[in-house]
TrEMBL record:
All copies of domain Chorismate-utilising enzyme C-terminal, residue ranges: 388-646
Gene3D superfamilies hit by this protein: 3.40.50.880, Anthranilate synthase (3.60.120.10)
One of the protein's GO biological processes: L-tryptophan biosynthetic process
Record protein name field: Uncharacterized protein
Source domain of life: Bacteria
Length: 658
């Protein structure tokens, strides 16, 4: 068996896919292990400082220390001299190497991706055999003399470290390789879903989705509209609407600090102590006859707020507590789906067929109307951080990156407007017109005494799982404003795609998302079918990468959400370090912003966005979150301007309504 040390990095899981059968042990538990029980030991990059003294007498045991691990292994052998920090995260580093040992058979020079700031130098040739150096002579790969202990500066599991797999093969060949058969996973059988009769009805015609939703939600205490607002632009195809109407429908609210779960069904309210994701997982329905429809056919619709990270990130304790509930979900007994491509509306109801009539009564057909143009009036809200404070926080992050503590961190801020009195559905109509997005949506909860609304125009897919178990995430890193001049608009998009800072930012998050999906995907199935593709929206161009995997058998989709939440594009890498640093850098809770919103299907499918480009209205208190990833090459002034760019369409919509 191969031992992999968990140093809380962001490539450990994808590395285990490459290695095969492994035992993963936290760095803090190494002292309790007998290293002779293992055929190989791998020490990945991360933020922990493992005690490696137990390896010193085991010269024949193959040991591979990567990134920060290579520095810690050298320290265990008495060497700690490093060159000046070189935080070239996500960029290739040329290796002039000996073509021996783990570097055998590689081209010379060879390029590998760096996520570690420090490079060893002035190593004692009597203790260390220098196997690769950079152009300045700093040590990139070494072997401890007379042993099978190797240190390598660069990241073998990075997407663009194309020779990383060959180096791992050479390392495994240093000793007999154990069977790569992974032992069967211990799984908890999924609780049998309640079987219910299901009724459907289809109608053809162009649906006025906004007018339909206004009618549908009028008498309900909670309602949702997952809105393919950019379908006319070829982005998104199906809109879903529903409410908590019906005796079987449920609305649940959850607080992460107390773990209190409030449940409303048929006018009755109860409370219990339970994790919301556990509750959603254990309360599924099964249609008595299969619905041959892609996408949502029944389940839960709602959101998981950012501060829910306390329940999904082991050992993390929130610094801030959100004013809004940390989760809110509706299990509709009846809902409708509208296919924008075919202009077909499908009504779905469980148990009670008459609910189809209720849905049909709400339908409004026709082209719809655009919000009336009005003059804009300045909004009177303010950001939590001043311009200078935001820029200073970006500089603080860059100091962390220079010190090798992280490769990039996503800094955000919150805009607050007190005493909002407008028509929120009208505001959402303006937002979806001004900034149409494929993962848009509107949620309303007038339950448990709350008056909460989420108006979302998100362009970013966080997590999608289809019926075949294909898992997909599409992180966005890179945003520039569009131009009204067509030629200049094309040039702006091309410049963004070629920007080294943006590329570095996108590659870092791509590797983080690959690692996240590896937690729940079948070994070897994680792939990147699209890397840094330009996607254009109404007001901005963005650089989008698609990461996929195949869900391991018997993994509930709720557990996939738990494993990858919060989204790496909104935290940074490594994620554990980033979320802790952000709790101290940011001036308050993010709340619903940068969480996830969408649906979890009873048939183990899902589609959730990243809650960005969104307006939250909580009992008249309006808030907007915005920000961006800070990397070594960031300009703090430009980072603050990017925050305003991302919030502009939201603020313009509010200003038009004022």
């Amino acid at each position: 068996m191969i031992l992999v040390v968990d140093n809380l990095g962001f490539t450990t899981n994808i590395l285990t896919h490459q290695l095969g059968a492994v035992h993963i042990a936290p760095a803090a538990e190494l002292a309790a292990l007998n290293f002779t029980d293992y055929s190989h030991v791998v020490i990945p990059h991360g933020t922990q400082i493992p005690d490696l003294s137990g390896l010193l007498g085991l010269s024949d045991l193959p040991v591979l220390a990567i990134g920060s691990g290579y520095q810690h292994l050298a320290a265990a052998y008495g060497h700690d001299t490093v060159a000046s920090a070189q935080p070239v995260y996500g960029e290739p580093v040329a290796h002039q190497h000996t073509r021996t040992g783990i570097l055998g058979g590689l081209d010379r020079p060879v390029e590998l991706i760096s996520y570690h700031a420090w490079r060893l130098t002035a190593m004692d040739p009597g203790t260390f055999s220098i196997e690769a150096v950079d152009d300045a002579g700093n040590v990139l790969v070494y072997r401890v003399a007379g042993t099978n202990h190797w240190g390598i500066h660069c990241e073998l599991a990075a997407l663009q470290s194309s020779t990383g797999a060959r180096i791992l093969e050479n390392f495994l060949a240093l000793a007999p390789t154990p069977s790569t058969e992974t032992p069967p996973e211990a799984t908890t059988p999924r609780q049998a879903a309640q079987r219910h009769p299901v009724f459907t009805r289809t109608l053809s015609g162009k649906l006025d989705t906004e007018a339909t939703f206004r009618r549908l939600q009028r008498d309900a205490t909670a309602a949702f509209w997952l809105d393919s607002a950019a379908a006319h632009l070829g982005q998104g195809d199906t809109s879903i609407m529903g409410t908590n109407t019906g005796p079987l429908a449920q609305t649940v609210r959850w607080d992460v600090a107390t773990n209190q779960l409030d449940i409303e069904q048929a006018g009755n309210q109860t409370s219990r102590t339970e994790d919301v994701l556990d509750y959603l997982k254990h309360h599924a329905w099964q249609a008595d006859q299969p619905l041959e429809l892609e996408g949502f056919t029944g389940g839960w619709v709602g959101y998981l707020g950012y501060e829910a990270k306390q329940a999904t990130m082991v050992g993390h304790i929130n610094t801030h507590q959100a004013a809004t509930p940390d989760a809110y979900w509706i299990k509709p007994q009846a809902f409708l789906r509208y296919d924008h491509r075919t202009q077909v509306t499908t009504l779905v109801a469980y148990v009670d067929e008459t609910l189809l009539d209720t849905l049909q009564t709400a339908l409004a057909f026709g082209p719809g109307t655009q919000p009336e143009s009005t003059s804009s009036h300045p909004t009177t809200g303010q950001w939590r951080l001043t311009t200078e404070e935001y820029q200073h926080r970006a500089i603080e992050i860059q100091a962390m990156l220079q010190g090798g503590e992280a490769a990039g961190i996503c800094l955000t801020d919150t805009y607050n407007l007190d005493d909002y009195r407008g028509d929120s559905l009208d505001l959402y109509g303006r937002l979806r017109t001004k900034n149409p997005a494929p993962y848009a949506g509107y949620l309303r909860f007038n339950t448990f005494g709350d008056e909460l609304e989420v108006l979302c125009a998100s362009p970013e897919e966080f997590l999608k799982v289809d019926r075949a178990g294909l898992v997909e995430s599409k992180p966005i890193k890179g945003t520039v404003a569009r131009s009204s001049d067509p030629a200049q608009d094309v040039q702006i998009a091309q410049q963004m795609a070629a920007d080294p800072k943006i590329q570095s930012e996108n590659l870092m998050i791509t590797d983080l998302l690959r690692d996240d999906l590896a937690k729940v995907s079948q070994p070897g199935s994680v792939a990147v079918p699209k890397l840094m593709a330009v996607e254009s929206f109404a007001t901005v161009h963005q650089l989008v990468t698609t990461v996929t995997g195949h869900l391991r058998p018997h993994i509930p989709v709720v557990e996939a959400l738990r494993a990858v939440f919060p989204g790496g594009s909104m935290t940074g890498a490594p994620k554990p370090f980033s979320i802790t640093a952000l709790d101290h850098l940011e001036a308050g809770p993010r709340g619903i912003y940068s969480g996830a919103m969408g649906w979890l299907g009873d048939n183990n499918t899902a589609e959730l966005n990243v809650v960005i480009r969104s307006i939250i209205i909580d009992a008249g208190q309006l808030s907007i979150g915005a920000g961006g990833a800070v990397v070594v090459g960031s300009d703090p002034v430009a980072e603050e301007l990017e925050k305003h760019l991302k919030a502009q369409a939201l603020l313009d919509s509010i200003a038009e309504q004022s």
